[in-house]
Amino acid sequence: MTLPGGISMRHLDRMTDCTGLVQHAIYSVPRRESGYTIDDNARALLLCVRLWSYEPSPRMLERVVNYLSLLEFAKRPGGGFYNLMSYQRQWLDTDSSGDCQGQAVRALADVVASGLSSDLRHLAVELMQRALPTLAELRSLRAQAYVVIAFGRLRGIEHDLVPRMEAIARGAARHLVECFERSRRPGWEWFESRMTYANAVLPHALFVAERSWPDRGFGAIAAASFAFLEAHTTNAGLFEPVGSNGWYSHGETKARYDQQPVEAVTMADAALAGFQLSCKDSYLSALRRAHAWFGGGNSEGLNLGVERDGACYDALMPGRVNRNQGAESTLAFLWTSVILAEGEMVRRQYGMVPLEDDTACVPAFEEASLPAAGPGPATEEPTRG
After folding, report:
1. Which residues, at least 6 apart from 90, have a Cβ–Cβ distance to it below 8 Å?
2. What is the DSSP letter of 295?
3. E strands, the chain, where?
4. Rounded-to-integer distance, Cα 64 and Cα 50, Å
5. Residue 208 host element (H or E)
6. DSSP per-residue string spanning 88-145
7. Is 115 in contact with 72 (CB distance < 8 Å)?
8. pLDDT in tens, the chain (385 residues)
9. Is there a contact between 191 and 204 (Cβ–Cβ < 8 Å)?
10. What are the residues whose beta carbons fall under 8 Å from the beta carbon of 167, sequence distance 6 or more?
11. Is 318 helix (H, G, I), strand (E, B) or coil?
């Protein structure tokens, strides 16, 4: 089975055993002592559900069932999911209240919205229902953003789960707006006092919120924050994300390295959401830049994606790459390839012309409608979990 563009699933299968997807690799070899994480396995589930939807096959269905089974095993007694599990299948965390909850529910929402068998969709619904109290208590901005994105997949489905999920997602979207308004100041159109990891998830969520609840101001903030992020992660026409060795705090210099694949995939994901909403070619251009980062369109001119295996190196460093090929990096490469194919498909379908009678491609907001920024206090970035 290959992804759009002929990219292989070989490395993902190499990293996956009967339990699930192993977290890290030494070069291209699974590092079993690193165990498994639910956020990685949720990403793998999301990918495989989407690919099965495009081209159903027994092998892809096996992958879906394997990753979904691990999410079922990860459920905590009080609701929500554990995240980190040892290779000996022992849970190593007791309070996984961060991003893994949002990643899990996003993948489960894709299962619910898919054409998979009723057994798999019923299980996904049950897991989401158990997680609702945990989702309502999330404080991580990125976890809340994933909840909003998850609801975007459920919108229009008739089930008791959906209105309960909508209430939580709407509250999460409002919280993102509040954080943006508190943190925003002249020259800093962002949700926090510094940019860290998976930054584009935040405007992505508000693009989805705009489609879900129009005329609430979500789209204007999504567009403004995405434009700010794009301006600070584009250099000489190339995508240059915030580096993990120092991040990017307000009033300071942006760290250029190490550049992580998760930044490229979240940028591409957000750009697709903006393109679907507005049909503006600038979003598709941002998507293409993020995708090109994997193929040498970066500050070092080095390939990170290994197309023959569908693998990806873990980071771009000054003059070299981190040659380990872990789960998060590999999934970032594969998912970005899917996103690019979807973006090109939308472009061909609509010919870049907004159609007033089509809800998937209607400009629903004015990008210049934000009030002037004030000097209000900045919020702290969430802890990754």
Report:
1. none
2. B
3. 22-26, 29-37, 84-85, 194-195, 234-235, 238-239, 248-249, 305-306, 311-312, 315-317, 320-322
4. 10
5. helix 201-212
6. TS-B--S---SHHHHHHHHHHHHHHHSSS-HHHHHHHHHHHHHHHHHHHT---HHHHH
7. no
8. 445 557 799 999 999 999 999 999 999 999 999 999 999 999 999 999 999 999 999 999 999 999 999 999 999 998 999 999 999 999 998 766 689 999 999 999 999 999 999 999 999 999 999 999 999 999 999 999 999 999 999 998 999 999 999 999 999 999 999 999 999 999 999 999 999 999 999 999 999 999 999 988 999 999 999 999 999 999 999 999 999 999 999 999 999 999 999 999 999 999 999 999 999 999 999 999 999 999 999 999 999 999 999 999 999 999 999 999 999 999 999 999 999 999 998 888 876 544 333 344 433 333 434 444 444 433 333 334 3
9. no
10. none
11. coil
The number of beta carbons lying within 10 Å of the beta carbon of residue 267 is 31
CATH topology for 10-350 is Glycosyltransferase (1.50.10)
CB neighbourhood size of 131 (10 A): 24
The whole-angstrom separation of Cα 150 and Cα 99 is: 13
Task: Name residue 270's amino acid.
Answer: A
Q: In whole angstroms, what is the distance from residue 314 CA to residue 22 CA? A: 14
d(CA 96, CA 31): 22
Rounded to an integer, what distance in angstroms lies between the CA atom of residue 323 and that of residue 309? 14
- Token pair of 317 as six digits: 């460093």
Q: Which long-range contacts (CB under 8 A, 24 or more apart) does 72-77 make?
A: 72/123, 72/127, 74/38, 74/104, 75/127, 75/130, 75/131, 76/134
SS3 of the chain: helix, strand, coil, percent, to 5: 50, 10, 40
- Cα distance between residue 71 and residue 108, in whole Å: 9
HSE of 370, CA atoms in CB hemisphere, 13 A: 21
Q: Take residue 345 and report the two structure tokens written for it.
A: 């498909």
In the block, tokens 């040498």 appear at: 296
d(CA 20, CA 228): 37
One DSSP character per residue, 253-286 reads PPP--SB-HHHHHHHHHHHHHHHHHH--HHHHHH
